[in-house]
């Protein structure tokens, strides 16, 4: 196996899936590799909120990298759930001649925060499997009550589309018809929840509130969830997917995610010519033909950040991109 010494960072976050077998239980792990640079902290903090396990990594050849662990550990305490499990990892153990952080120092810091400690090498694959396996074991132990409740069904808990073995096609067709009937009655917000719940292991829905379209998102970050619950769409709605902090998707302060997506996809394939027609709604500057035109413009993106097909305008019902989601999951099935 060749080790890639230089990798490119696209969006500040990389994503992988891995299936581990722990004590006879198949565990499918979603691994979010978040960047350590200061400019990505707004992004990475969002991933703490739903994390069950976190690996804090420093470079043993960099004292500065080690010092930053205290800041990351503080962020985890502030933003992550109470049951989150953590381990500390010192990477680049193969570069002993360049070591700046003694192993004893890493072990001492880990004990201070109640974490287990590993030194690893991504280059030689030293302790990589061991560290991920141990973190997964800790997560399972922390959620033992929930696991006991599902004992006997865990191995069968896969996305319906990808269940192995014989399937009753007629029964599945009836279920699909029931889903379609239900989907037609759902608003866009409900459709987002439905897609996330229908493909929980391989699809991750990310929402980015924005106030650049008719000033429809004029709440503060702390008020957005209450607005969704009580105002629009209301009726006690709670998003079943990750919602980021409010950001700009057009103009000078465009979020890096949307700057990247607009560079890759100049405009939605289904609506290549429409920009906002009413000048009073063009509240950002500079204005570009590639700008997002309104709320609920959608992008389907593969794990490393590359867009799959072209974007989808507000005219496309969210649920109507499901066939493309299924196609992408088939193409990337592992």
TrEMBL record:
A GO molecular-function annotation: GTP binding
Localization per record: Cytoplasm; Membrane
Record-linked SUPFAM superfamilies: P-loop containing nucleoside triphosphate hydrolases, Thioredoxin-like
SMART domains referenced in this protein's UniProt entry, alphabetically: RAB (SM00175), RAS (SM00173), RHO (SM00174)
Any GO BP annotation: response to oxidative stress
Keyword tags: Cytoplasm, GTP-binding, Lipoprotein, Nucleotide-binding, Oxidoreductase, Peroxidase, Prenylation
EC number: 1.11.1.12, 1.11.1.9, 3.6.5.2
Main location: cytoplasm
Bilayer disposition of the protein: Lipid-anchor
Superkingdom assignment: Eukaryota
Reaction equations catalysed: (12R)-hydroperoxy-(5Z,8Z,10E,14Z)-eicosatetraenoate + 2 glutathione = (12R)-hydroxy-(5Z,8Z,10E,14Z)-eicosatetraenoate + glutathione disulfide + H2O; GTP + H2O = GDP + phosphate + H(+); (5S)-hydroperoxy-(6E,8Z,11Z,14Z)-eicosatetraenoate + 2 glutathione = (5S)-hydroxy-(6E,8Z,11Z,14Z)-eicosatetraenoate + glutathione disulfide + H2O; 2 glutathione + H2O2 = glutathione disulfide + 2 H2O
GO terms for cellular component: cytoplasm; membrane
Assigned protein family: Belongs to the glutathione peroxidase family.
PANTHER family xref list: LD44762P (PTHR47980)
Function of the molecule: Catalyzes the reduction of hydroperoxides in a glutathione-dependent manner thus regulating cellular redox homeostasis. Can reduce small soluble hydroperoxides such as H2O2, cumene hydroperoxide and tert-butyl hydroperoxide, as well as several fatty acid-derived hydroperoxides. Cannot reduce phosphatidycholine hydroperoxide.
UniProt-recorded name of the protein: Glutathione peroxidase 2
Organism whose genome encodes this protein: Coregonus suidteri
